[in-house]
Amino acid sequence: MVWRPPTDTIHARIIAVEETPVLRASQDLLDHSVEAIDGVIGVVKDLYFDDDSWVIRYFVVAAGAWLSGRRVLIAPAAVTMPVWELKRLPVNLTKQQVKNSPGIDTDEPVSRQHEREYLRYYGYPFYWGGGGIWGHGAAHPGSLVAGLDQEGSAAAHLRSEQENRRADAQADADHRPRGDHHLRSMGTVKAYHVHASDGEIGQIKGFLIDEIGWVIRFMVVDTGDWWKGHEVLISPEWIEEIRWDDNRVLLGLTRDAVRRSPAYHAGGLLTREQERLLHMHYGFGDYWAREVELENPELQLTPSEFSPPSAARP
Asked: In the Cβ-directed half-sphere of 16, how many Cα atoms lie within 13 Å?
């Protein structure tokens, strides 16, 4: 019997999230047209994610001739209503705002200091403090307060700065170096080799991204010669170590467990039921229910309410 969460009113948010599959293939985001309020900015050429939470922090956009082909960063917080079928990402920015934004060399690692300058320019709170994958308890970028740019008041600016100082203080308390380069290019990581506890299983071919929180939920791994003709899904939560210096991802799973995992058919829609079965196979609970609890601590869910029955991890 497949585990289901409770269906009372308190857990309605969990039910709603469960019934809405919102995973997008990373390659489908490339070459999307990013459109400002007053015209096209350019096209998406890469995505930067942070290697702590595996959340997409920026789209790397190749601007058109209007900006001499300069590459700029656009945060997911700016995205309004994507038009997926037309490969369009409208943003609530003007071309002049983008033109005047802090210059960032996308060929070099983006430092935390560069991010501070960028986020302050647009009025976005820092995401690295206060809980939630987007900071300040936020589970998606749309729930962030965009400070001065949205409210246009001195009070909003002061509040944003206060939140930013708290975020930096929290980072210091967690012993995170302020100048640490923590952003990774999805295009670079895509070629990494993935190793089970007893041998290599293949290479990263792509990623499946939650379009609400912009979280990387799965790596798509091409099993190559080890298991020809197959692709498998591996969650970042199941990674034991990443060796950035030699492009390797190490798992605490066995090859046999990976081979026995629920089948994944490339290009098909991954349902919540399929996700649940995959997590249960490896002995992990449902991430979406856990995140609802973090976003809404008043729910006070017990482990048995947001996790399926325990399973022996292979």
From this structure: 7
Q: What are phi and psi of 44, to 5 degrees?
A: -75, 130
Helix (H) or strand (E) holding 160: helix 154-173
Residues 197 and 254: beta-carbon distance below 8 Å? yes
The CA-atom distances, in angstroms, between 156 and each of 113, 159, 272 are 22, 5, 38
Please enumerate in sequence order all residues whose Cβ is within 8 A of that of 222, keeping only pairs 6 or more positions apart, or say none.
202, 203, 204, 205, 231
Residue 56 vs residues 60, 161, 265: alpha-carbon distances, Å = 11, 23, 24
Q: What is the pLDDT of residues 81-133, one digit of tens each?
A: 999 999 999 999 999 999 999 988 877 888 888 999 999 999 888 888 666 77
- Kindly report the pTM of this predicted structure: 0.79
Q: Are 26 and 47 in contact (CB under 8 A)?
A: yes
Q: Per mean pLDDT, which range of 15-29, 103-117, 211-225, 299-313 is the poorest?
A: 299-313
Check: CATH 3.20.20.140 for 27-102? no
The helix (H) or strand (E) run that includes residue 155 is helix 154-173
Q: Give which of 274, 268, 271, 266 is closest to 205, Cα–Cα.
A: 266
| 74, 95 Cβ separation under 8 angstroms | no
Please list, residue by residue across 132-165, b when 16 or more beta carbons sit within 10 angstroms of its beta carbon and e when fewer do. bbbbbebbbbeebebbbbeeeeeebbebbeebbe
Which fold does the domain 190-306 belong to in CATH? SH3 type barrels. (2.30.30)
Residues of the chain with CATH 2.30.30.240: 27-102, 190-306
Query: How does 99-130 read in b/e, with b if 16+ C-beta sit within 10 Å?
Result: eebeebebeeebbbebbbebbbebbbbbbbbb
Per-residue pLDDT tens over the stretch 268-313: 778 888 888 999 999 887 776 666 565 555 555 554 444 444 344 4
Q: Are 188 and 242 in contact (CB under 8 A)?
A: no
